[in-house]
Amino acid sequence: ILKEYHPLFKKYKNKHLGETCYIFGSGPSFNNFKKQESGHFIGVNHIIKSDYIRTNIKYYFFGHGYMIYDNNNTIYGNHRNDVNSLGNHVEKFCMVSLNNNCKVHNFDLPTIRGLHTINALPCDMNLETIHAEIDKYPFYNHSVIFPSMQFALYCGFEKIYLVGCDCGQYEQEGKNGTSKYFFKNDGGGKLNQYTIDRWKKIFKMKNNHYPNAKIININPVGLKGLMDGDIFTTHS
Question: Do 147 and 8 meet the contact criterion of CB atoms below 8 Å apart?
Answer without folding.
Answer: no
